[in-house]
Amino acid sequence: MIELSGWIVLNFFTSFLLILLLIFQKRTSRLQKARKYSAILICTLILLASETIGRIGEYHPEHFLFLGKIGYFLIFLLDPIDLLFAVSYIDCWMERESNPARVCFKFAFQVFAVVNGIMVTASALFRLNWFYFFYDNVYYRGLFFYERAMTLMFFIVMLMVYAIVFRKDFMSEYKNTVLCLPLFSFIGALLQVFISNIDCTYAGISLGCLVLFFYFQSNDINVDYLTGVLNRRGLDIRMEYRIKNSQSGGKDFTAIMMDLDNFKTINDTFGHEEGDKAIKIMAEILDETFGEDVTIGRFGGDEFCVITDITSRDEIDKKIDEIHTRLEAVREKRGWNKNVNLSCGYEVYDHSSNMTREKFANTIDSLMYREKQIHHGEKTENTAISQ
Q1: How does residue 29 score in pLDDT terms, banded at 50, 70 and 90?
Q2: Is the backbone of residue 291 left (phi > 0), alpha (psi -120 to 50) or beta?
Q3: Do 197 and 273 fall into the same domain?
């Protein structure tokens, strides 16, 4: 009968859990929150793999000493980065913009990650033995091992403190559950103090991610099931927040409403599966064009809305031209009707106007439909000419 060490069993099941979470959360991968969430999963998975190969190299140095050196280097290098990803993810669930205190908190995590990276790399390159080293094929803790361990534990505690101190900044419907990530990370780190031969820290982070997945990533009622961007409800919530923030802080923003012209021809010609694919492609085009720092949502059917901090009309027009170019390339590649196009309407929200969400939404909706009527007029004219 084969006996497996506890760390092997724990690492295997934790890695398996992280891989499953990465696979199942792919549906929401176009949301900024999902990207931050994926970053935590991937970084923790790399740390687990590093810990595994590190132990293999430590226990079998006669054949795999190089694995020990690689594994432990990556662990000491990436530990603070995993915490930095966790802070960034927690920040995504806050409805208020960063204040000076939050900026200082996040800056401290960034400084720790950078300084740690420099010192770990320097120690490995110049054999300074600051954190760990191998001598006669035996692993030893370095000169500053315990100082770094205490600093890492301090920042794990600070992750919990950050979520509690700024709890009032969380979106009201998420403020309780989002605490799971720092809480489980803290519990895992605390257990690590008493169970030295099993790495509980990564297991704690993974359990926190599991809870968040069930509450947010897989069951968020604000996410569109087909595209992974926000749905109508999520858009309304985000728009309401941006307007309140604009009125109180004086920061304007732009909202763009978009509609796929002649979308029905795709369904009629190629079937509804191709129609669903067209909706997904449209979400991908918007994501590729605007990047992370925007809100993208499916307003309904083949309509999309983008909320961005860009307020220059020339820059917005360039973005829209880029979308048209990308859509045209896809249309030709997939053989869609040449009249499949995009109608857009946008407006910059003026913070001094005190316009309500409903009125602002109706404004950009009207502008979009005005362009849609122009496109339909061009289609009718082109049809008459061809006849």
Answers
A1: low
A2: left
A3: no
